[in-house]
């Protein structure tokens, strides 16, 4: 079989056969198909899309291109489920949802990624915890999931290696935004992780890869239908990403906010709504609860009782972090050398925030990547980020900047001011959860 024939088929709007897709994925895995031919097919798919059947074939082929985890030997007494977010600014939901769901009876083997571009990476954030091993072997990963109920680790080369190479090539050829390719990329790793159910958090807005509700809805439906073909029951929430989620953005600072949440010390309103909604959907999709309202109550009880915080602490200990991390996180997390406030040029109500620019401010501080091998400063970022609708002035800042130098703080402050629009009149309320989408 010739790769050029596969490219030509898709270039001309045809449907790839199961044999063509298997051949292509095999060549991705072993490197026998050169990058220029991979990128050519990616661009052909970008312009001509794929049928639902093609996307399902690609997903299954990539999911079996490496190790596929099987949890049956662990004799777990609850469902195996995970959450995936399409990425945003200040998105620390994973650190909350995994232990809350585990406290409610789920097992959550969460395999996450690193940040690239304006969105932060879950793996980078969790590595702000000293001693935490985000790349354990599968034996330790299984043990922590079994003992604590959840484990948050980084992506491994063993799971869906075909997708790993395909995504790296798509990332540098402007073909990331293809809905069938996003679908296959997400689901191939989740299927390989041995999940029984999945909840998707599809971000929509200025800080998301899906800027409009129509595009977010299209991705949600694609993921749900493709997952169904692999017997992976999936629900999706479309959530707002037109501003920072929570009051922090940046690696260690987001971990600190997650600890405040789990200890029930402070739960920012929008973050709380996203977390509780996703948790409730996770309990419903797994069958642990039939009613969303009852599921939300159960998730909330996991926080207020301290059970979820205890789960997070056990996970941290199991992966090499401090035994007293939850109770003493302030002592363990890295702190920036400089903290400065950025104020608006004129007083008023914050009515708009370009979350993409806010994410780029984190990069200017050294907390985000321009390229994959950039070394991060895990201490820098933003705290006390003003929410849209709040009054800001010379005493109430847009945010506090945590920086390594005055120069980087000044660059970040400029981006934050450019990102924020202030008006004399308060804006109309905007929903945090736009839609819940299921197969039913």
Comma- or semicolon-separated keywords:
alpha/beta; Pyrimidine Nucleoside Phosphorylase, Chain A, domain 2; 4-stranded mixed sheet; 3-stranded antiparallel sheet; 17 helices; 12 strands; globular
Helix content: 40-55%
Beta-strand percentage? 5-15%
Find the CATH superfamily of the largest domain.
Answer: Nucleoside phosphorylase/phosphoribosyltransferase catalytic domain
Total number of helical segments? Answer: 17
Number of domains: 3
Give me the CATH architecture of the largest domain, please: 3-Layer(aba) Sandwich
Q: What is the alpha-carbon Rg in Å?
A: 21 Å
Strand order of the largest sheet: 1-4-5-12
Topology:
Layout: H1 3-11, H2 18-30, H3 35-48, H4 52-63, E1 81-85, H5 94-103, E2 108-112, H6 122-126, H7 138-148, E3 150-154, H8 161-171, H9 179-192, E4 197-204, H10 213-229, E5 233-240, H11 251-262, H12 269-285, H13 292-304, H14 307-318, H15 329-332, E6 338-342, E7 348-353, H16 355-365, E8 381-383, E9 391-392, E10 399-403, H17 406-419, E11 420-423, E12 433-437
Parallel strand pairs: 1-4, 2-3, 4-5
Antiparallel strand pairs: 5-12, 6-10, 7-9, 7-11, 8-10
Helix pairs in contact: 1-3, 2-4, 2-8, 4-9, 4-10, 5-12, 5-14, 7-14, 8-9, 9-10, 12-13, 16-17
């Amino acid at each position: 079989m010739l790769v050029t024939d596969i490219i030509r088929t898709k270039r001309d709007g045809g449907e790839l056969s199961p044999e063509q897709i298997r051949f292509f994925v095999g060549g991705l895995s072993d490197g026998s198909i050169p990058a220029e031919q991979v990128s050519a097919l990616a661009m052909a798919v970008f312009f001509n899309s794929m049928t639902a059947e093609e996307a399902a074939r690609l997903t299954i082929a990539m999911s079996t291109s490496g190790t596929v985890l099987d949890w049956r030997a662990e004799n777990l007494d609850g469902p195996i489920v995970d959450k995936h977010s399409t990425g945003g600014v200040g998105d620390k939901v994973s650190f909350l949802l995994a232990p809350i769901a585990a406290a409610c009876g789920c097992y959550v083997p969460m395999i996450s990624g690193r940040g690239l571009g304006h969105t932060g990476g879950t793996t980078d954030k969790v590595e702000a915890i000293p001693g935490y091993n985000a790349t354990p072997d599968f034996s330790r990963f299984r043990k922590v999931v079994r003992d604590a109920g959840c484990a948050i680790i980084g992506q491994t080369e063993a799971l869906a290696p075909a997708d790993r190479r395909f995504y790296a090539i798509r990332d540098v050829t402007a073909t990331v935004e293809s809905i069938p390719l996003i679908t296959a990329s997400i689901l191939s790793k989740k299927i390989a992780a041995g999940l029984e159910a999945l909840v998707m958090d599809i971000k929509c807005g200025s800080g998301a890869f899906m800027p409009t509700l129509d595009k977010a809805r299209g991705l949600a439906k694609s993921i749900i239908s493709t997952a169904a073909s692999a017997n992976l029951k999936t629900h999706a929430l479309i959530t707002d990403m037109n501003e920072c989620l929570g009051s922090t953005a940046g690696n260690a600072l987001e971990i600190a906010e997650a600890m405040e949440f789990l200890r029930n010390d402070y739960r920012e309103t929008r973050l709380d709504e996203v977390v509780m909604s996703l948790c409730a959907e996770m309990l419903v999709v797994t069958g642990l609860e039939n009613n969303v309202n009852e599921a939300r109550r159960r998730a909330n009880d996991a926080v207020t009782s301290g059970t979820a915080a205890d789960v997070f602490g056990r996970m941290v200990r199991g992966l090499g972090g401090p035994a007293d991390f939850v109770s003493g996180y302030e002592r363990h997390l890295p702190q920036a050398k400089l903290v400065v406030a950025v104020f608006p040029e004129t007083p008023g109500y914050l009515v708009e925030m370009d979350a993409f620019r806010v994410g780029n401010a984190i990069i200017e501080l050294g907390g985000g990547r321009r390229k994959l091998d950039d070394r991060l400063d895990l201490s820098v970022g933003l705290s006390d980020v003003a929410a849209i609708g709040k009054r800001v002035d010379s005493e109430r800042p847009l945010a506090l900047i945590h920086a390594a130098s005055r120069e980087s703080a000044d660059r970040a402050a400029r981006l934050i001011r450019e990102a924020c629009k202030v008006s004399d009149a308060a804006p109309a309320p905007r929903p945090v959860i736009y839609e819940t989408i299921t197969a039913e």
